[in-house]
Amino acid sequence: MSDIQDKIVIITGASSGIGEATAKELASKGAKLVLAARREDRLQKLQQEIENNGGQAVYKVTDVASHEQMEELAEYTLKEFGKIDVLVNNAGVMPLSPVHEKKINEWNAMIDINIKGVLFGIAAVLPSMRERKLGHIINVSSIAGHLVFPASAIYSGTKFAVRAITEGLRIEECGNNIRTTIISPGSIDTELTQAISGVDLKSAIDEDMKIAIKPSSIARAIAFAIEQPADVAVNEMIVRPTIQQL
Question: Is the pLDDT of residue 1 over 60?
């Protein structure tokens, strides 16, 4: 039996990509899932697929950029299952653009979702985890949280922030037996590039993404971190295509 069996796991950004793949992977190992995203039709479809395969999942339409909705998500999970074992802060956006283009709305979206969304998720689950002195918070960063490339200044800034927040949380909460993990994907075949509004830039990024690996690769890494014994914390992983140089 996997150590994931019967763990209560919240996954944000569960409607596609890494979130969807992680939901399927963890459900196959016996986790009980709370799926969160903004697209209800996608959540319903995923919940049904998991249940048809013998898994257990509920969902709640949630905007991670709303502190209130993230608090409601945690409250819903506690009401349904009585505890929160793991939070996978996965929701994110990547509308890359050079700074001089001043795409302020895109900057705000990245700050609200990639940074505030992570913080709101942590804030929502931390009280119950501290009370139990047990829990695991997994934050999805990016290879862009380790390096900066043209047009990634703001996006990389948000992902560097996720790493700093996660490490700070680790230092603060390790004494409460709360584990933290940073997952930094490289090129992954997801919808992230669809948010790039610059036609030429999107075309260049799409070309680079031809080497992308499947979201299931990240899902397996997340499962590996979760299924370690409670006294073992996998604090950080970078997972990229073998042939990716960046």
Answer: no
pLDDT at 2: 75
Of the candidates 59, 81, 120, 155, the residue annotated as catalytic is: 155
CB 122 within 8 A of CB 89: yes
Q: What is the rounded distance in angstroms from the CA atom of residue 61 to the CA atom of residue 176?
A: 30
| SS3 assignment for 63-129 | CCCCHHHHHHHHHHHHHHHCCCCEEEECCCCCCCCCHHHCCHHHHHHHHHHHHHHHHHHHHHHHHHH
Q: Is 76 a catalytic residue?
A: no
* Residue predicted with more confidence, 44 or 189: 44
0.85 cut: is pTM over it?
Answer: yes
Coil, strand or helix at 12: strand
